[in-house]
Amino acid sequence: MPAKPHAQARSPAPRLHPRNRHRGQYDFARLLEACPALKSHVRPNAHGLPSIDFANPQSVRLLNRALLADWYGIDDWDIPAAYLCPPIPGRADYVHCLADLLAECQQGRLPQGHAIRLLDIGVGANAIYPLLAHAEYGWSCVGADIDKVALANCQAILAANPAFAAHIELRHQPHADSMFSHIIASGEHFDVTMCNPPFHASRAAAAAGSQRKWRNLGKGGQAEGRQPLLNFGGQENELCYPGGEQAFVASMIGESVRFARRCCWFTSLLSSADSLPALRHVLREAGVKQSRVLDMAQGQKRSRLLAWSFWDAAGQQAWAARYWPVPDQASAAGKR
Fold it and tell me: Percent helix, strand and coil across the chain, each rounded to 5?
């Protein structure tokens, strides 16, 4: 019997999520208190307001350190040279969108607490998604990666933040072509998975993307006869995959079938809307019951979140009833 067509929904015009802490202008006075080293990187922008050079990897790294310390209580965050340096507002948006997806399973009530389990495929050296997910919602998280150097840096961040370390686990993926296999243990479940996939098919494509970013930032790297820096960095496995993000996410969807009953929602970021038609076909072939495409934006950057589930709405409600504790009504009333 052919699979029933899966439900689809599309969000309104993209903007930062309503619960995102970074919707307004950065308060640089506060940020400099949180990270004094950022001071030498702050300059007036074209409007006379304090800002940084977003084409400078060091400036972006220090801004991240300040934001994480000031807004989320995360100390001593850092990454090795040339590793992916994530833009915090956009990463926070992804986490809030996941909370909204899970809220659908329980009549719109946001899921909070350690019982909620998140799996980050490709946690990188920055551990940003588990850190934000635990800071915002108290979730328990597993971060997986093929790169042992990246995982060692994540472990150093957690060592400096024991309150986070108690609820974030790191796992090494020994097989470069696997995503969920060798990570999800027998009998283990996750409420939601997430991934920031390698967007490019090659280093040349990554360099072209960086050149576009430089033009958007008003820089002229190529005109000066040099390749632009990747202002957010990135190792080969963070940036590139044969066939790019479309091939990577298609492989992820194919592997997710084996874990269909072990996860409530699977998700991945997508950089290009051009990847969607082919991936929708893959989702239909996989027999998913529901899918979502949520548009997201940060400044000039546009992206989207692709989510899929092998559970229908009734199955997801049963999932929530089984795995998520009912909040104490008296406590909830007292906090209102």
Answer: 40, 15, 40
Give the pLDDT confidence of 252-296 residue by residue, as tens digits.
Answer: 999 999 999 999 999 999 999 999 999 999 999 999 999 999 999
Reference 34, options 46, 23, 45, 42; nearest CA is 42
* Model pLDDT for residues 213-232, shown as the tens digit of each residue: 444 545 554 434 444 444 44
User: What sign results for the dihedral spanned by CA atoms 31, 71, 153, 212?
Assistant: negative
Tokens 């409530």 sit at which residue? 264
CA-derived radius of gyration, the chain = 20
pTM over 0.70: yes
Strands 190-195 and 117-121 turn out to be parallel
Assigned domain for 195 exists: yes
**Segments forming the whole domain that contains residue 96:** 87-326
- Structural domains in the chain (count): 1
